[in-house]
Amino acid sequence: MARANFVDYVKINLTSGSGGAGSKHFYRAKGIPKGGPDGGDGGRGGHIILRGNRNLWTLLQFKYKKHIRAEPGQRGGENNKSGATGADVILDVPLGTIARDAETDETLFEITDHGEERILVEGGRGGLGNSHFKSSTNQSPDYAQPGEDGIEGWYILELKVLADVGLVGLPNVGKSTLLSVLTAAKPEIANYEFTTIVPNIGMVQYRDGRSFAMADIPGIIEDAHLGKGLGHRFLRHIERNATLLFCIPADADDLRGQYQTLLHELEQYNPELLDKPRVLALTRADMVDEELKALRAHEVPKGQPALYVSSITGEGITELKDLLYGLIIEQREQYDGRQRAMEEE
Description:
Layout: E1 9-15, E2 48-52, E3 67-69, E4 89-93, E5 97-101, E6 107-111, E7 117-121, E8 152-159, E9 163-168, H1 175-182, E10 200-205, E11 211-216, H2 235-238, E12 241-249, H3 255-269, E13 278-283, H4 290-295, E14 306-308, H5 317-344
Parallel strand pairs: 1-3, 2-4, 9-11, 9-12, 12-13, 13-14
Antiparallel strand pairs: 1-8, 2-7, 5-6, 5-8, 10-11
């Protein structure tokens, strides 16, 4: 994905359609000079709807289209005919898109499923025709309701990348190289910091046609939660990853220190991130021999699943896939269990 084409935050102006006015028509025909009120209702104004689309990975389509309006409803007609409903505007967005009110910063909803549709801005209701107001004491109402105005406002769409596994690490630790080996993604790879400046996403092909999504998040540095480096702009993408894969070079001078820096930055940004399952991948395993691995065994955090992996020789790649897939299935089963429990309550 080209850097310029990855857009994960937009502010757009949306206006739903106004409702059509009700009709105050009276029926007239030969021999029936006083047929009574028969004005129909006005049509509803068009909604503005967000729809999840798993084939989209960016909010690029809104970058140059900041103002969107839905059609108004049509006026009611004679013979109790309702006016036509204004056409809805359906906006396709990537899964993981959050909609917020720009004025209050209130989170309205999140789109997480393919085909899921949520009304972001409701169209105005159509007005009632005069036929609704006739009664025994008012047999010829000469009035009808106007339609409701549409709603206009500024809204924020924010994308948090949905992936089964999120790669987390300091800059230039081999995350992009590992992603390119595990998936068909083609991230930029170079020997300098912040090569990755937008999330890269790829599908890891597992056994028997099974697969899972992996995202390479731009490198974290110390005090990233305060906005340093690439800041917390991309930390939010980690929130939507089911499992975190910490990447630290096997030949790092301070392996434990890098690990603690990553934990600290995630905790400062959102403490709940530490509740996610995590695996430690010691990258560039081809740079260390078995003797050095044994000498540094005490530096690997205890109780933390850890593997030596090499994108060059393929060491540990199959074992890493097995470990990650097992954790993903475990997370999915726990989620399904919680959903069933909620349905039974």
